[in-house]
Amino acid sequence: MDLQRKPKWMRVKMADVHKEKALKKMLNRLSLNTVCQEANCPNRIECYGKKTATFMILGKHCTRNCQFCNVTHHEAEKVDQDEPKRIAEAVKEMGLLHVVITSVTRDDLEDGGASHFALVIEEVRKMDRKITIEVLIPDFLGSSEALKIVVDAKPDIINHNVETVPRLYKGVRPQGVYERSLNLLKHVKLMDKSIFTKSGIMVGLGEKKEEVHQVMDDLRNINCDFLTVGQYLPPSKEHYPMERYVTPEEFDEYKKEGEEKGFSFIASAPLVRSSYKAVDMINAAEGSQ
């Protein structure tokens, strides 16, 4: 398959230009970043329609340099103490029902930014307790103390992506540790079993199906509730190379496999990204309880 030419299943609908401009204007006014805009997410219009959006906190510069990610690797910025209140204001203006909070990795901070996550959760809860909150967190260098700060803030979902299979970590995620990521998700459940846990993996980097199945087993062994599986697309020629486009039929197979292994909800499709169908996941899990 020609990797220079996207197959038809990777093509997305054009965004509503007027809505996009209005949203960008509001985000600029409040000095906020959304992953939806920064990453040009193909699902952002669908998510906005479901009153869902993903905000990125703690600046735009990451202290790590993962080879799959387009976030800039520069000196970290000063923590903006007013950011949590501005996010709550944006959530209100957008009329969101579900909000996802993620961040760059901040290994320079003592708690990895955990207390800032907690403040955002607190401000959104003060504004409207009915809004469901998902946090997509870094690994906090394995600190259980930092993780507990986030857990004690009681978001509805704690997400941490394993990103790829263990064999490919050295090239794709050199500063990450597969076992550390699994341990983080495991400890969320040990600290508070009422919080849903979630992870995500990219495919098309050269992994084998059996390796993806093993990742699923590893996640289910620590009672991970939700999983996303999506196509890896390198942001540039300098990033980790994509080996192939995974077909929709293979994504369907992964979805079926994940359901059989016991995930409460699995979103598996070429354009799936980490926050895709977040509300559906909660509804599915709560309906099965």
Structural descriptors:
eight-stranded mixed sheet; globular; 11 helices; 289 residues; 8 strands; alpha/beta; 39% helix
Description:
This protein has 289 residues and is α/β, with parallel strands linked by helices. It has one domain: Aldolase class I (TIM Barrel), CATH 3.20.20.70. Helix content is 39%, strand content 14%. It has helices at residues 17-29, 35-38, 44-49, 83-94, 114-127, 144-152, 169-172, 178-191, 209-221, 248-261, 278-287; strands spanning 33-34, 52-57, 98-103, 132-136, 157-159, 196-203, 226-231, 265-268. An eight-stranded mixed beta sheet has the order 1-2-3-4-5-6-7-8, with helices on both faces. Helix 10 (248-261) links the parallel strand 7 (226-231) and strand 8 (265-268). Helix 4 packs across helix 5 and helix 6 packs across helix 8. The chain is globular and about 45 Å long. The N and C termini lie far apart (44 Å). 44% of the residues are buried. The model is unreliable at 36-41 and 43-50 (pLDDT under 50).
Could you give a short description of this structure?
This protein is α/β, with parallel strands linked by helices and 289 residues long.
Q: What portion of residues belong to β-strands? A: 5-15%
Number of E-state strands: 8
The string of secondary-structure elements, in order, is: HEHHEHEHEHEHHEHEHEH
Number of helices: 11
Query: Ends: how far apart?
Result: 44 Å
Q: What is the name of the CATH class?
A: Alpha Beta
Topology, pairings included?
Elements: H1 17-29, E1 33-34, H2 35-38, H3 44-49, E2 52-57, H4 83-94, E3 98-103, H5 114-127, E4 132-136, H6 144-152, E5 157-159, H7 169-172, H8 178-191, E6 196-203, H9 209-221, E7 226-231, H10 248-261, E8 265-268, H11 278-287
Parallel strand pairs: 2-3, 3-4, 4-5, 5-6, 6-7, 7-8
Antiparallel strand pairs: 1-2
Helix pairs in contact: 4-5, 5-6, 6-8, 9-10
